[in-house]
Amino acid sequence: xxxxxxxxxxxxxxxxxQCQNIRELTACIHNQNLxxxxxxxxxxxxPLSYEFRMTKDTRAMRTxxxxxxxxxxxxxxxxxxxxxxxxLYLHVYGFTAADEGIYECYVKITSDLTGAQTRNVTVAKxxxxxxxGISVLIQNTSWLLLLLLSLPLLQAVDFVSL
Length: 162
Fold this sequence. Notes:
There is one protein chain. This protein is an alpha+beta fold. It is 23% helix and 40% strand. The strands form 2 sheets. A 5-stranded mixed beta sheet has the order 5-6-2-1-9, with no helix packed on it. The protein has a 4-stranded antiparallel beta sheet with strand order 4-3-7-8, with no helix packed on it.
């Protein structure tokens, strides 16, 4: 009987430990607009609370967008968040040097015992990569799958002969 309870507790702890985790936070720029991609794991169907925050130098953290706090007046009409599967997209329109700083993705799943998760990225306008379709494909696809998908293209240009 004690071993059954021990196994039940272990399984519960393992499930809770894998419920939520921010895997990656990346930043890129497209047409003078900043895009942050916050990729997270969620193994539950519980509601998601999220927020993007920003701080610059030693100033207080400001809310950029999300469904928790009120966005800072500087970002109120310039930022929005799109949720798609396990990915949060933050778009900041008209990104300037004044918007540079440390951006944070904050994710909290209701009734999740692991607590809130955060991930930071430093954003400097002159160091941002350009957002492109191929870079999105590379970020979301394994290298082996990309290689297999590109073989017909390489054959078509006579680069590879099988």
